[in-house]
Amino acid sequence: MEAQKSTLFTRDFTLVVIGQIISLFGNAILHFALPLYLLRETGSLTLFGAVNACSFVPMLLMGPIGGTAADRVNKRNVMVVLDFLTAGLTLCYCLLWGKVPLVPLIIVTLMLLYAIAGAYQPAVQASLPLLLAPDHLTQGNAVINMVNTLANLLGPVLGGVIFGLWGLGPILAIGGVCFFCSAVMEIFIHIPHVKRPRSVGVLATAAQDLSESWRYISRQRPVFLSVTLVLAAFNLLMSAAMIVGVPGLIAGVLGMSDAYLGLTQGAMGLGGLLGGMLAGVLGNRLRPRHGPLFMLLCSGMAGVMGLAMLPGVPALVSYWVLTAMSLSTMSAAMMFTIVLLTLVQSQVPGQLLGKVIACIQAVANCASPLGQAGYGFLFDHLPPWTILLGGAALSALVALGSRRVFRQLEA
Description:
Layout: H1 11-42, H2 45-72, H3 75-96, H4 102-131, H5 137-166, H6 169-186, H7 202-220, H8 222-253, H9 258-282, H10 291-308, H11 315-347, H12 350-365, H13 368-381, H14 384-401, H15 403-410
Helix pairs in contact: 1-2, 1-4, 1-5, 1-6, 2-4, 2-8, 2-12, 2-13, 3-4, 3-6, 4-12, 5-9, 5-11, 7-8, 7-12, 8-9, 8-12, 8-13, 8-14, 8-15, 9-11, 10-11, 10-14
């Protein structure tokens, strides 16, 4: 096994990467098209933000459960089953489309898509230390995150073109085929797995595992909890504004076409890809103490977006500024994510890794649904530049106040 791990792109890691490309592209194109379809049909940013918030909640709930499964069940089997489930979900949407009310159908579909994604990612992240040598872990995380952002680059760009030309139907077909093909290919991945005994039922075992991971975070590594709470505050103020604000402003306020919106969300994917490439090149030179700097950069870029939405700025100028700042923000955020993920993978015991990653992600993202619903309401009732500038100022304060926490994390 050690000989197999001597290179980055081993057979099994390569199959994981290819499976991620196919599966995440299917996710990206559906996550882009379904909310956009709802926005085009209703024209309500408040409803758009509320639906995004509702769909995000199951991902938070399923993340820790997926982390528990990743530590107890063969990680390959988790990926295969969830991809088959997502293919079936897409088929069910096609069968119900036009036969049931639109808003509940999209809400339920997005909730299930996000729930599956929340359970899926811990299995992938927890598999990397089993497939890669420690000195390849940062590069492996960079590759996986670049694949994620590449899917988020291609999905919205192609989705915007396809949606504008032919509507939602072809996008549903493409997504379903992607999930099915990914599941079939993942069957051939070999991830080392040692079955852990359990003395109680499945639900009780899951509860014990989650309690164990929470005790580890809160007692043995309390700095993880402090960082997680900082991330939750930042997500409330900044990530939610990006998720709801960027598509809402471009499609709703600026009145740009679906292709323009797809181009912007593709630029966000490109920014993440560039951030992953930079993280892979810089490697261990990126340290946790750089976290507040990345957060400040994101806050500053949101401020520039607010200035671009001031009255009198031409719509096309505002659009290109939003696009450029979205790209830059995603690049900084991706580098930050890779640094933290690599740190957790290198410090947390293997039997806890999937659960700890999932718990950190769940707590860090728990404020995002509230932020998405709130921003959707605010963008419908206040000038967008005031919201963006206010969010940028508050998130900058969070970044400045977090410097001591990140220094403790590195120590």
